[in-house]
Write a structure and sequence with these properties.
With 130 residues, this protein is an all-alpha fold. The protein is 71% helix and 0% strand. It holds the Pfam family PEMT.
């Protein structure tokens, strides 16, 4: 909920760009904030998973390796999305007026419309199974 609201506010007002002196500096600051909040979210998720009882059916090597495979596939989608979009493309640069020259159609966007979202979902699903 946080970063889409901040990005829309920036798009309407350009306030962050003025405060930081440039749209690039403002976008990098928002990206760093998003990354820190992601660390908090991951920590909270890990603590929640540790406190939950395990299902007997998932307490086996098969479930662990399935979770690991799903986590690995998700990680590939997240990292390849980031590499295809770059930092400003990943962290809402378009709201700061930083546009890419062309639409990205290479992998992973050739496979999925929203590979960053699907990849993140797969990471957390795999983590939960593990």
């Amino acid at each position: 909920l946080f970063f889409p609201q901040v990005a829309r506010w920036e798009h309407k007002t350009r306030a962050l760009s003025r405060v930081f002196g440039s749209p690039h500096a403002a976008c990098y600051c928002l990206g760093a904030t998003i990354l820190m909040l992601n660390g908090v979210r991951s920590h909270c998720f890990t603590e929640a998973m540790k406190s939950q009882p395990k299902l007997d059916g998932l307490d086996c090597h098969c479930a662990y390796y399935l979770g690991l495979a799903i986590l690995a596939a998700g990680t590939v989608f997240v990292i390849s999305s980031f590499l295809a979009l770059g930092f400003t493309g990943t962290f809402l640069g378009d709201y700061f007026g930083i546009l890419m020259e062309a639409k990205v159609t290479s992998f992973p966007f050739s496979v999925l419309d929203n590979p960053m979202y699907w990849g993140s979902t797969a990471v957390y699903l795999g983590w939960a199974l593990m």
